[in-house]
Write a structure and sequence with these properties.
By secondary structure, the protein is an alpha/beta fold. The chain contains 6 helices and 5 strands; from the N terminus they run E-H-E-H-E-H-E-H-E-H-H. Strand 1 (3-8), helix 1 (15-27) and strand 2 form a beta-alpha-beta unit. The relative contact order is 0.20. The structure holds 4'-phosphopantetheine.
Length: 164
């Protein structure tokens, strides 16, 4: 049984992430979506909110599990018996950072391989930060995120503007 870990901040999950998770679930027996608990950038959503969104939007994929993680990704992967880290690769801009992470992870534990899936062309430009920015500026974010996530973003924007 091949277990893969699909890590990220998922703040929040977008159609780009969902595409990668779905495709990974077709390749591997089990995909553990690992949501980074402590992020350097202050997240918009708590770990519970981010994992809830992910559980809702992957509810129809039986071999996907959503888990929060802290610490080193390779340690988390080893604890889950995962041999693979699966990541989506968008444009050239992602490449250097992803390459650096993959090499570092391989140095830390060479039993774990990083596998990249090329993002489908319609998600090439998509990122959680861009979606939040479009939402903040009043744009339509429905092409980028599922409805429950769209509502969550709009609610957070409202809360943020009430705080000002
Ligand atoms: O969605 P993101 O923010 O690009 O995801 C980044 C993530 C979670 C994959 C990365 O920050 C990570 O693996 N963090 C865990 C800490 C770690 O293992 N660092 C060493 C490898 S570079």
């Amino acid at each position: 049984m091949t277990i893969a870990v699909c890590p990220g901040s998922f703040d929040p999950v977008t159609y780009g992430h969902i595409d990668i998770i779905k495709r990974a679930a077709k390749i591997f027996d089990k995909v553990i979506v690992a949501v980074l608990v402590n992020m350097e950038k202050k997240p918009w959503f708590t770990i519970e909110e981010r994992t809830d969104f992910l559980r809702k939007v992957t509810a129809d994929i039986p071999n996907v599990e959503i888990v929060g993680f802290e610490g080193l990704l390779v340690d988390f992967a080893a604890a889950c018996n995962a041999k693979v880290i699966v990541k989506g690769l968008r444009a050239v801009s992602d490449f250097e950072y992803e390459f650096q992470m993959a090499l570092t992870n391989n140095k830390l534990n060479n039993n774990i391989e990083t596998v990249f899936l090329t993002t489908s062309s319609e998600n090439m430009y998509l990122s959680s930060s861009i979606v939040k920015q479009v939402g903040l500026l009043g744009g339509d974010i429905s092409p980028f995120v599922p409805e429950c996530v769209r509502e969550g973003i709009l609610q957070r924007i409202k809360q943020r503007s009430n705080l000002k």
